Amino acid sequence: MSKLTPAKPEEVMVIRNLTPDLVTLSVPFSRFGLARVGGRATIIRLKSQDLVVFSPVALTPDVKSTIESLGGKVKFLVAPDIEHHIFLSAWKQAYPDAQIIAPDGLKEKREQNPETRGLKFAHILTPTNKHGYKIPEFGDEMEIEYVDAHPNQEIVLFHKPTKTMVEADFIFNLPATEQFSKSEESPTQGLVTKLFVALMSAKGSVTWQKRTIWYLFASKDRKGYAQSANSMAKWDFDRIIPCHGDVIETGGKETFTNLLEWFLDGDKKRV
């Protein structure tokens, strides 16, 4: 964990209220120690005042204060894929009544490591149960899509009241400007970072990210990927909160459609 997270997260984390019920916790993070892609947790407050924490990051004193300011009732901890889970134990210890939502395979992965084993998972999404999967406490406020066709097995949420999609590795929006804004590092410094930014930008023609999704992320199951993409295309979202890169504050649906058009239109010419 020490190799993957900032040494002093409390000094570099950016806590931002997007709406009264939507808060982001953004931190610097480098993939493979080289590509500066950033990391982010999202806190969603439901009408019941229950809190949903998507992709938990370091639980600093300021984060705990933020939780308290939102009512303090952490109901769900969402591990959005098999990669974003290293802080689950710390959050579960602090909020023992919280239910963990995770993708198929994560429990088994964590059980192989003495440092992460032993957590109880309340909701596990699988290829067989994902269609119509409902979490009763979400009511009509939240939709959930399990993209098991993605190599990281992605869980994507849609918060209807704020018209917000929350996701981990399904869409990137590099560079990670906000996430590195309190650090002494540039979000675009280094050859590997520059390559990642070029590949995973969500601005302009987005040709390279479209190619990455089609030829890499979706290569094992393009039909399944298309099914998930078309399901999410029905959501009425405007904002996208990714784990990696800046928040897409508005125009998120257009960005999504542009990036996923090869899956949304079977006759679209691919390049």
UniProtKB/TrEMBL annotation:
InterPro entries noted in UniProt: DUF4336, RibonucZ/Hydroxyglut_hydro
Alphabetized Gene3D superfamilies for the sequence: Ribonuclease Z/Hydroxyacylglutathione hydrolase-like
Organism: Polytolypa hystricis (strain UAMH7299)
Protein known as: Metallo-beta-lactamase domain-containing protein
